[in-house]
Structures are given as structure tokens and as C-alpha cells.
Amino acid sequence: MKSLFGLWQKSLTAQLLSWMLVALFASQAIGLVIMWDYLQADLRASARAELSNRAAAVSRLVETAPDELRYDLIRISSTDTSRFWISDGRPVALDQWVQQAFAQFQIPLGDMLSDEDRVDNATSLPASADAQYFLDGATWTMPATGQAELPVMARYLDFAKRSGAGVIVPLDDGQVLNAAFYKAINPSIWRTHVPLSLTLTAILVSLVGVLTVRRIASPLRQLTKAAETLGRGEPVAPLRESGPEDIRRMTIAFNSMQERLHRFVADRTRMLAAIGHDLRTPLTTLRLRAELVEDPELQDRMLETIDEMQAMTESTLSLASQETSAEQTRTIDLSALVESVCDDLAELGQPVRFVPSERLNYRCRPEGLRRVIRNLIENAVRYAGGAEVRLVVEASTVKILVEDDGPGIPLGSVEEVFAPFFRLEGSRSRETGGIGLGLSIARAIARQHGGDIILSPREPGLQAAVVLPG
């Protein structure tokens, strides 16, 4: 049940069809409840009008036919739902007449229409109908509108809970023509054609709904996939502008947005590259002039400052160029990538331990992720003296965890450390604190993959988690 509800929540088609069918069945049910009594009344009125018309026609035939043909006319006038018989003109009680009608319906129609004696137990009555059922609700009535004109002395009655009706027509010779109609009206909607009609309507509505939703959902799925791909930093071909007007306009807006983003990033990168190139010339000039300084101590300080400016310039350009990295996205074994980074650092003598994990195929830019993992491990080794690295796969994310037992980071600074040139270490020495762009570059690469880097304090130490979409 949970899986079905989950599918219903995720599927636009399932939700739309469900509400369409609920609205269909609710409207049909309300309409049937309102119209059911009217429908039954119309059926009864139609049956009584038809009975009166046939009784009038049969009475005229009987009055004009020879006596020897009267029986045959009466016999062939009967149907599955009607019976005719002639009796003398003496008044008859209501219950007695109903019992005579029941006896007439007990005679199979085939026996009435055939002159030969037949052994046929089939009757026009349902198994539940008996004489007492015919007497239930029996009453004298008035002629209904729309009936044929019958003699003023004609009498009308209902029986069998208004499922049956009768007409007593006086004839010219003093006898009377008795006409009885009986047809059980379905007491339940489910015994009528309504369920079949409703089922066919629901199927037709479902087909139309599926086609409509697919026409809407197909461009939306393409747009979702393109947005996810763009969020990972991969190139996306312009989407085909199709579907309803609202969907088409949204696709046009997405294509325009993508084009503007690429143009903005490309322009910014070209501008920063030009600035970086132009900065190299004055830095080189400063370095040459510093070489001419005779005071060795002053010269060393000047060269150190120039080297720091050079490193900051190169790091800034590296940070700005992450969005336009030329590295292609491909599928790799992420566990093997993380393990190889740990092995490389361990061979350099750094205390790094990798917790083995299962093979995981993942689509990414391997060199970019390698740089992120290496930066986090080197920070842990520099400030905590060691690191433990492991890969955790969750329902919708993949996490690369780098944990240490060092002093950690104050809770109020876990976001500040990602700011460019921010350093917790107070000195400006590159040996103790670096430039302050490592985490900024690492987070830029992670977000380029559609993920992020999250720092969480431990007791003791710090956990750095590279969170990537699954």
C-alpha cells in the first residue's frame, strides 16, 4: 500500500487520473441518486401507457371479431410481459383479480401461442414472485396521462409493488377484457446498464487523461533532466520547444536562461584571464626590481610578498575558472577514486586511512573531485595530524566523509571558512595557513557537480562531508 501511495505522490498521471475518475464517479452517483426515482416513475408510466394502448386495440378487435376467433385473438395478443383474458362482467374484488393475473403469468407464453399440449415449466415470472408478492401494494388507480381513450367504465389498478399494472375494459356484450402487465424493475442500479456505461466512460476518460498528461509531462521530464544536467555543470543541448503554450514558453525561457548563464560565465572568465595576464607583467617587473635591492633582509621580504601576490592571483583565477572547466563528465568507480587519493597521500607519509567500501559507478569530473578530496584531507592532516576517509551511499545522496580528531572549527565559523581568503589562523604565513582559497575552490567544484560541502563538529574533531546527488 505504501508503494502505491508513493507512486501516486510521484506520478502526475496517477494523480490527475485519480481526481478525474473521482469527479466522474461522484457526478454520476449524484446524478443517478437524483434521477433514479424519476427514471423508475417514467418506466412505470411508459409501461402503463403501452398497456392501455394495447388494451384499447385488443378490445376493438375482440368486439368486431366473430365469437369463434375471440379466444385466438386473446391468445396471440399476450407477450412475455403482458397477458389478456376475457371474463364475465360480474364485479370482482381487487385481490381476486390479482390472483387471476398471477395464474395467467404462471402459464408459459409458448403454451399460450401453441395449440398443442406442451410440458413446459418455464414461465415469465422470476423465482421470487408468488401470489402474495403480486398482492403486495395492490390498489385501484386512476388512468395516467398519455393513455389511449378507453370506455369511462374501464378500471385501472397496480400490483406487485407497482411493478405490475392492470386494466379492466368492459365490452359491448357485457363481458370484460382483462389486461395485465408485469415486469420487475431493477431495484438496484448495479443490475442495469449503468455500471457498464460508467466503466466504458471511465476507460475513455482514462485514455484521454493519459494522452493529455503525457503531452504535458514529456516536456517537463525533459526540462527536469536538462536542469539536473546543467546543475552538474555538464553541457546541455537546447531543448525542443514543443507541447502546450505554457510548457513551450517555459522551455524557451530555460533555453534563454542557459544561454545567458554560459555567456555570463564565459565573459567573466575571459575578463579574469585578461586581468591575470596583465598582472603577471607588473609582478615580473617588481621581482626584477627587488633583485636590485642591496639589503638582503629587505629583498627577502619583498620577494616573499611578491610570491604571495603571485600565488593569490593564480588561486583567484583558479577559483573563477571552475564553472568553465574543460574536463569532460564520465562514469568512474567513485570508491576507487577516493581510495587512490588516500593511497597517494599515504605514500607521501601523511597519516590517512581509507575505510574500504563497495564499488560505486558514478558520473562526475574525476580530476575536479580528486582535487576536492585531496584539499579536505590535507586540511585534516595539517590541523589535526591525520584523517579517516570513507564513502557512504544513502537513498538520494552519495557522501565522501573526511573525519579527524583535531581541535575542530567553532560552530559560528563553519560557513565563514568557505569565504575567499578567510583564515582561522591569525598569521599570514603560507606555511601555517595557506592563502585561504582551498575550501572556496573545493566547494565551487562540489556545487558544480550539483552537490555541496558540509562541515560538522565532532567530539572531538571535525567531519567534512562532500554531499553529491545520487
Biggest sheet, spatial arrangement of strands: 1-5-4-3-2
Rg, Cα atoms, Å: 47 Å
Number of domains: 3
Provide the succession of SSEs: HHHEHHHEEEEHHHEHEEHEEHHEE
Profile the largest sheet: 5 strands, antiparallel
Q: Approximately how much helix is present in the residues?
A: 40-55%
Low-confidence segments, given as residue ranges, are 117-122
Number of helices: 13
Task: Bin the strand percentage.
Answer: 5-15%
The number of distinct β-strands equals 12
Shape: rod-shaped
Mean pLDDT: 81
How far do the termini sit from each other?
26 Å
User: Would you tell me the structural class of the helices and strands?
Assistant: alpha+beta
Q: Care to describe what's here?
A:
- With 470 residues, this protein is an alpha+beta fold.
- The chain folds into three domains: 12-191, no CATH class; 223-324, Helix Hairpins (Orthogonal Bundle), CATH 1.10.287.130; 329-469, Heat Shock Protein 90, CATH 3.30.565.10.
- It has 13 helices and twelve strands.
- The chain has helices spanning 2-10, 12-64, 67-77, 94-106, 109-113, 131-135, 194-231, 245-291, 296-320, 334-347, 366-384, 430-433, 438-448, and strands spanning 82-87, 139-141, 155-159, 164-170, 176-182, 330-333, 352-354, 361-364, 387-393, 397-404, 452-457, 462-469.
- The protein has a five-stranded antiparallel beta sheet with strand order 1-5-4-3-2, sandwiched between helices. It has a five-stranded mixed beta sheet with strand order 7-9-10-12-11, with helices on one face.
- Helix 2 (12-64) runs antiparallel to helix 7, helix 8 packs antiparallel against helix 9 and helix 11 runs antiparallel to helix 13.
- The protein is rod-shaped, with a radius of gyration of 47 Å.
- Mean pLDDT is 81; it is low at 117-122.
